[in-house]
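Sequence, please.
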């Protein structure tokens, strides 16, 4: 049985790893005197191994967590951490972790001060670190669940910075073969579910109704049939080139290849 103590203990352990890795990356970036090419190379060389170590720790915690859930439910499970899940982007880490510098250079080209540009780069770095940690958590959970007898899972809200997208998703159950969609900054966990004795697709109608009420307060109307407003235009799950399924708003745009190049003028 997935006890509250087991779930919260796992969440705290994962968030603790993420917090330490993020604090380290932010410290190095903040204390870098400049962002010249050689500075960025040094930052990337120091940050990437620490992020990778954090990802592996989270993968191990997640695998052990799914194992505990399996044992509690009397379901078969085969332990195993897949190190390949760390390299999920298909893009070299040293390229990915230079993107905060690209953000800073772009800001400088637009006329920002160095302090402002550096702060914008820090925000980009923080987003990349947290996304990498969460992606490892999600993908290892999927890998571990696939090695167990569980067929279903639900999204577990962390209790911190829960957005409406995650709240709606947490009111329903999903097959373990489906990767849990995320958005940048998401820190949701997973709780496995047995079948077929579980309820239907919607497992928390009260929460779902609360979110609908929030939508009505936000846009002035709501419709459980999704007609007015059209919920498809408020909440979507679409494919991101590196992340996979991503929760987002319909009007949000992902960074494209043309946005990743370094400006010629610094």
């Amino acid at each position: 049985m997935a006890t509250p103590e087991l779930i919260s203990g796992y969440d705290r352990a994962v968030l603790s790893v993420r917090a330490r890795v993020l604090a380290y990356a932010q410290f190095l970036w903040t204390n870098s005197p400049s962002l010249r090419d050689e500075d960025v190379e040094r930052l990337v060389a120091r940050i990437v191994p620490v992020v990778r170590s954090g990802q592996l720790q989270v993968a191990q915690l997640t695998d052990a967590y799914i194992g505990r859930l399996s044992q509690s439910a009397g379901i078969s499970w085969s332990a195993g951490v897949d190190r390949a899940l760390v390299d999920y982007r298909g893009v070299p880490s040293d390229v990915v972790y230079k993107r905060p510098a690209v953000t800073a250079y772009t800001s400088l080209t637009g006329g920002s001060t160095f302090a402002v540009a550096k702060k914008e780069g820090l925000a980009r770095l923080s987003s990349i670190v947290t996304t990498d940690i969460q992606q490892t958590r999600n993908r290892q959970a999927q890998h571990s669940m696939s090695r167990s007898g569980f067929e279903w899972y639900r999204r577990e809200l962390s209790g911190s910075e829960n957005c409406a997208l995650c709240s709606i998703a947490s009111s329903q159950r999903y097959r373990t073969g489906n990767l849990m969609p995320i958005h940048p900054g998401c820190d949701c966990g997973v709780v496995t579910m047995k079948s077929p004795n579980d309820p239907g697709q919607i497992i928390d109608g009260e929460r779902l109704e609360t979110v609908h009420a929030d939508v009505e307060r936000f846009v002035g109307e709501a419709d459980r049939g999704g007609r007015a407003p059209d919920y498809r235009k408020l909440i979507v799950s679409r494919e991101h080139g590196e992340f996979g399924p991503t929760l987002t708003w319909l009007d949000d745009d992902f960074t494209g290849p043309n946005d990743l190049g370094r400006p010629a003028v610094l």
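The helical segments are 4-30, 37-73, 93-96, 99-109, 114-146, 164-169, 205-219, 231-234.
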